[in-house]
Here is the input.
Amino acid sequence: MLSIPSSEILREALADLRLSDYDTMSPIFGQLRLKVCTVVDDLKAGGMRAEQVVLTVKRIVSDAQMRPGNWRLVDAIVKWSLEHYFKESADVPS
Here is the structure.
């Protein structure tokens, strides 16, 4: 299990979700996305490549033991992770 504070915060937030929160229009998504981005920042700062970040975030999701029917949310989390990972490098002028 990953032991950075942001990963535990994300894991707890995911474990606390209700089935109704899995809807991609849920207001909880903004807060959840911020937690995902914080984890991505921490992992990237630790030298992880994008592929490793995605696998680690998926492991956090799995560790949270979310209810069945969460595939849209998992897809969104993976998308947020990749978008955030590459955000800074895309903003750097060439």
